[in-house]
Amino acid sequence: MKKYLVVVEKTQTGFSAFSPDLDGCIATGKTKKEVETLMKESIQFHLEGMKEDGILAPVPNSYPTYCEVFA
Q1: Tens of pLDDT along 44-70?
Q2: Do the domain assignments include residue 64?
Q3: Distance CA 54, CA 57 (A)
Q4: What total number of domains does the chain contain?
């Protein structure tokens, strides 16, 4: 089992999500719970497609961090 970082962003109509380690793997939803559920399904689908195409799943490399700045 692998853990991929997922970034969730608030939009005007709900939420969107993507994984920096999985190019093109995205999801949208009206609630946080919905977008997280759909993103998990999207990642699974993405990885299954890669496997069918003979492409190895990428090693997760992204990590979360915060930078404090004066604003």
Answers
A1: 999 999 999 999 999 999 999 999 999
A2: no
A3: 9
A4: 1
